[in-house]
Design goal:
It contains 4 helices and 9 strands; from the N terminus they run ααβββββαββββα. With about 210 residues, it is of the alpha+beta class. It starts with a helix and ends with a helix.
């Protein structure tokens, strides 16, 4: 199950930032037990899109996801993308941008009992998918347990170097679950090499996570 969730998360946030590996086929290969589904997945590159307008945190809009019953704030009102049911999960994805920061909320509702679901394994599957796509210097760090709105999970930071070696990612992600739902809250930007962290990403991630209601 965790590979299904990880491939959805990976595709979502790389697409949200305009990164080079946002094609569905390549993301499926990254998280699939059978990577030969596609012959040559593209590796993550630095963003090719211009920054979006910066939306002040106080002006973010609260959105409610009807099927899961969750709500959260994003810079813009966006329409969710539904993902086909796979591995017992039915997913929806909300993507937004503010300045250079890409944001995403990934929601999966499952037929399985998820009380023993391993969210840390999802983050490790994400780093594995990035490596399969050709990313280098992939790191998962700053792991810490979190408890929010009756859900349990983990926060982490994922970093990797873009294939053109001009940028390094700063990707903050929170993965949580309860009995039937898995939620990922994410913020990502690409920084100059040697830069460790981004106050803009940290502020956006804090705004997103503190706005979450289960």
């Amino acid at each position: 199950m965790r590979t299904v969730v990880a491939s959805l998360v990976l595709a979502t946030l790389l697409a949200a930032t305009g990164c080079g590996s946002s094609s569905p086929d390549s993301s499926a290969a990254a998280g699939s037990p059978n990577p030969s589904v596609t012959s040559s997945p593209s590796a993550p590159s630095s963003p090719s899109t211009r920054p979006a307008p910066v939306v002040p945190l106080a002006q973010w809009i609260r959105l409610t996801d009807g099927p899961s019953g969750t709500s959260f704030a994003l810079p813009q009102r966006v329409v969710p993308q539904s993902r086909p049911s796979s591995g017992g999960f039915a997913g929806r994805v909300y993507q937004a941008r503010s300045g250079d920061t890409g944001l995403a909320v990934t929601l999966e509702v499952s037929d399985h009992d998820l009380r023993s679901f391993d969210v840390i394994a999802v983050l490790h599957a994400l780093t594995g998918g990035l490596k399969q796509q050709g990313a280098t210097h992939v790191r998962l760090r700053h792991l810490r347990p979190v408890h929010s709105e009756g859900m349990t999970g983990v926060d982490g930071v994922i970093s990797f170097v873009s294939t053109d070696e001009t940028k390094v990612s700063y990707w903050r992600v929170r993965a949580m679950h309860d009995r039937r739902r898995v939620v990922e809250l994410q913020a990502l930007a690409f920084l100059d090499p040697g830069t460790d962290g981004s106050p803009a990403v940290d502020r956006a991630f804090t705004r997103l996570t503190t706005s979450f209601r289960a």
